[in-house]
Specification:
mainly alpha
Length: 69
């Protein structure tokens, strides 16, 4: 899995894979590859979202601890 891939790029690729599968434009021969890639992208997006949530929560906690700053 590419660690330099941005959330937006991963989401865009994931959305394209979903559209391809929904439109039945993915052959049976590559379907498993597409599903595997989608799984990797979902994991990447979830990881980035959790990291962002954690960082935002830390910032909010710091702001609440130091309200005058």
């Amino acid at each position: 899995m590419e660690t330099t891939l941005t959330y937006e790029a991963a989401y865009k690729e994931l959305a394209q894979i979903a559209r391809d599968i929904e439109n039945e434009s993915v052959s049976v021969d590559v379907l498993a590859q597409k599903v595997k890639r989608a799984s990797e992208l979902i994991t990447l997006c979830q990881t980035k979202l959790r990291a962002t949530e954690s960082e935002v929560n830390k910032i909010i906690a710091q702001m609440e601890a130091n309200p005058n700053k």
